[in-house]
Design goal:
Elements: E1 2-7, E2 9-10, E3 18-19, H1 21-33, E4 37-38, H2 41-46, E5 52-59, H3 62-75, E6 80-83, H4 109-117, E7 121-124, H5 137-155, E8 161-163, H6 171-178, E9 183-189, E10 202-206, H7 213-217, H8 222-237
Parallel strand pairs: 1-5, 1-10, 2-3, 4-5, 5-6, 6-7, 8-9, 9-10
């Protein structure tokens, strides 16, 4: 399997956004045991080599530094953080947050810098996490370009990747993002292998669908991939990405 995995929070209690540290450990262990290498997003997208995955964390939630960072350090596994720059040091209560999503603390800039020092790639996820389709051209530019500029000012490195808020995109949004970064990730539930993927519309596997211990132990197997395919079909039937 060649795939990008999506995470948000890592919390002691599981939720729509959060895996527990134990579940994250089980998944990383299963990935390694299955013969897959965990590589950076940049390395994954630079080559079609199989049996590799990249780990990505959306938003910039504080629990990532508390729980995911030490665990992935233990496994010497690289990761990417897609940061909502306008909410650094606040919480994830941006406008448009779906009902039922827990209010969670965000990293402050010291925490973001600590991840960067550990080798995490810090990439852009907009300033305010809006539906970019509903923004004017100027607003989209502020959201996409502004998040890249904020990261560059603070860390000294310009982002090369972007995650679409909520996975929402259209041709105008993709064109704007393409002016600023080399690749962008969506919420479309799919592997990279066997897909002709636009680098600005890369699919990911949401860790929400990889919580079961049997899936984690069989990561990349025919039964596990078939189950993910069925979940993707169900999401499309419900009108999801």
């Amino acid at each position: 399997m060649r795939a990008i995995l999506t995470f948000h929070a890592v919390e002691p209690r599981e939720s729509l956004l959060a895996l527990t540290p134990e579940s994250l450990r089980g998944l990383v262990t299963g990935i390694r045991a299955s013969g897959h290498a965990i590589v950076s997003l940049a390395e994954l997208t630079a080559s079609p080599a199989p049996d590799r995955v990249a780990l990505t964390f959306d938003d910039g939630l504080a629990s990532v530094a508390e729980h995911a960072l030490p665990l992935l350090r233990e496994f010497e596994a690289p990761a990417t953080l897609f940061l909502t720059t306008g909410y650094v040091g606040r919480d994830n209560g941006w406008p448009g947050q779906p009902p039922g999503i827990a209010q969670l603390a965000m990293l402050d800039w010291d925490g973001v810098e600590a991840l960067a020092r550990e080798g995490w790639a810090i990439e852009a996820h907009s300033v305010n996490h809006p539906d970019l389709r509903a923004c004017s051209e100027a607003e989209r530019e502020d959201e996409v370009g502004g998040s890249c500029e904020a990261i560059e000012r603070r860390l000294g490195t310009r982002p090369r990747a972007f995650a679409y808020p909520y996975g929402f995109l259209d041709p105008a949004v993709v064109a704007c993002v393409g002016h600023h970064v080399a690749c962008a990730v969506t919420t479309r539930l799919a592997r990279l292998d066997g897909n002709a993927c636009d680098p600005l519309c890369l699919p990911r596997l949401d860790s929400y669908y990889l919580r079961g211990a049997w899936l984690q132990r069989r990561f990349g197997s025919v039964p596990a991939n078939a189950w993910l395919t069925l979940r993707a079909m169900a999401r499309r039937l419900r009108g999801g990405a």
